[in-house]
Write a structure and sequence with these properties.
This protein is α+β, with helices and mostly antiparallel strands and 75 residues long. It has one helix spanning 6-21, and strands at residues 27-34, 37-48, 51-62, 67-74.
């Protein structure tokens, strides 16, 4: 079983958020490994009906590199 590294999960999250939110700039603020999963926190700018907003995200990835859950919220 290949276990993903901290750098791997950061890239997985950047690619995932870029595709899901159609955002070019994704800022990862924190990466932690806890209870057998990686938890990644960050922000990305979005355009909501012509107005710029910042959206916060939390992405949980298992040790194999698969996205298990996501949570997005406006700041």
């Amino acid at each position: 079983m290949k276990v993903v590294s901290k750098e791997d999960v950061q890239q997985i999250v950047v690619d995932f958020v870029r595709e899901k939110k159609n955002a070019e700039r994704i800022f990862v603020s924190s990466v932690e490994q806890k209870d057998g999963v990686w938890i990644i926190y960050g922000t990305c700018p979005i355009n909501l009906e012509g107005h710029p907003w910042t959206e916060r995200f939390e992405v949980v990835i298992d040790l194999k590199g698969k996205v298990k859950s996501t949570e997005f919220s406006l700041l």
